[in-house]
Design goal:
Aspartate carbamoyltransferase; aspartate carbamoyltransferase activity; pyrimidine biosynthesis; disordered C terminus; about 325 residues; 11 helices; single chain; binds phosphoric acid mono(formamide)ester; Asp_carbamoyltransf; Asp/Orn_carbamoyltranf_P-bd; Rossmann fold
Amino acid sequence: MRHLLSAADLDRDEAVLVLDTAEQMAQTQHREIKKLPTLRGRTVINLFFEDSTRTRVSFEAAAKRLSADVINFSAKGSSVSKGESLKDTALTLQAMGADAVVIRHGASGAPHRLATSGWIDSSVVNAGDGTHEHPTQALLDAFTMRHHLVGNREHGAAAGQDLKGKRVTIVGDVLHSRVARSNVLLLHSLGAEVTLVAPPTLLPQRVDAWPCATSYDLDASLPEADAVMMLRVQRERMNAAYFPSAREYSRRYGLDARRLRLLQDHTIVMHPGPMNRGLEISADAADCERSTIVEQVGNGVSVRMAVLYLLLAGGEREEVSR
Ligand code: CP
């Protein structure tokens, strides 16, 4: 694997390898080994043109735990605000020497452009591009589902396994969600059955071509689900045609205490964050015992360590759990 641009870059075996490697990374953390020397002398640049809390911080933590040098670049306060292009920004960073560039950008396709342009030599990791994809979010979500839904939840118990036959319901603003698209692609590769539940105005026009089912009826979908993933309503990308009323949206598509009672005992409640509490998810649901929302953030570090390790360690791979 040279780059990670899309969840579709990973077939079933490659996705399981990332998840198994993340298990090993998590074990090193549980053993309180603060740092692995694996990426000593390598440089990871975090290139963020859009705001982020979880993704940016966890990529930084992941790179540092692998002993890489980390350069954090934020478009705010940089020469991007003076009109500098992606190409000139990339050439500038290339001159500083980067082994991996982790990029978040508002334009769908920007990571692909960076990876294929010839402007830089480094590996490129998509940390979220426009409404297109967010593959490491899908990987950390699958890692979390595997822990809860496969095996006996002990660390490493799910090694080598996929999510065959598990039912995942993804709810809400699919139209603007890069998380939804990456999850559908990855979960399909891992054998899970995905249902997207959304109002008609918040489903993409060509969703019929996605490898999943669709529904407008949340109450009917919840009792079937092993995992329910609520999506953030991206009001900054909306107009009234998509989203007439917050109260109506919550009533039809919000997860609240009444809807929690429709779930099976083992079903987990997920959200990629950041959440609009009281809109797509109530405080009852966000903070309930079956919520994995905080756990997902922690798992993001292990998964991103695995991705950087598999991209950069190459032939020098060593047994990371040692
Ligand atoms: N889930 C996610 O991508 O969160 P951030 O925008 O905080 O990185």
